[in-house]
Amino acid sequence: MANNSKIILGIDPGTIIMGYGLIAVKGQQVTIVEMDVLKLNPQKDHYERLQLIHQRVNELIRKHKPVSCAIEAPFFGKNVQSMLKLGRAQGVAIASAMQAGVMVAEYSPKKVKQSITGNGSANKEQVWQMLQRILHFSEQPQYLDATDALAVAVCHHFQESSPFATTGKSKGWEKFLQQHPERLAK
């Protein structure tokens, strides 16, 4: 990858199916690098599945060298045990990225859907169809968890490239004041 391009890793955490998608951003052009799922055997011990998530995230980081990792925040359901397991899977993915020195950002499912489709209540098929238009691809993956992960990466790109972006070393007002020191009261 050239110096003026960057890779973003998107993750849709799961303890049975973890979606992942990587995009390359070069200027205003965004392309798919890889999109797939890690399918985990539900018969395996939960801790073994967490280890496999850790390994896959590490492999993706070593192979593609992303500058950032965007991960979807778990939505709150009624089953507390499921939420705990999902939170652990998300935590393992986050820790893997951070240990590799990759910046991590988290987005709610509603934020991701709104960023991609303009509708925070869009379904998985609507997200996939809009991603096809944005990224110019035709295939539908076997699992929409892969396109969900791709959507998280694209959402992160949109948030970073927004004139109102608050990611990076300087944020919001802090960045504005750095750019306009004359506006500070003495």
TrEMBL record:
One Gene Ontology term, aspect cellular component: cytoplasm
Annotated binding of Mg(2+) 1, by residue: 12, 145
Cofactor(s) listed: Mg(2+)
GO process annotations (BP): DNA recombination; DNA repair
Record field: catalytic activity: Endonucleolytic cleavage at a junction such as a reciprocal single-stranded crossover between two homologous DNA duplexes (Holliday junction)
Gene3D superfamilies per record: Ribonuclease H-like superfamily/Ribonuclease H
Assigned keywords, A-Z: Cytoplasm, DNA damage, DNA recombination, DNA repair, DNA-binding, Endonuclease, Hydrolase, Magnesium, Metal-binding, Nuclease
Active site residues according to the UniProt entry: 12, 72, 145
A GO molecular-function annotation: crossover junction DNA endonuclease activity
CDD domains cross-referenced by the UniProt entry: RuvC (cd16962)
PROSITE patterns: RUVC (PS01321)
The keyword DNA repair belongs to this UniProt entry's keyword annotation: yes
UniProt xrefs under NCBIfam families: ruvC (TIGR00228)
Protein name (Swiss-Prot/TrEMBL): Crossover junction endodeoxyribonuclease RuvC
Species the sequence originates in: Chitinophaga cymbidii
Gene (UniProt): ruvC
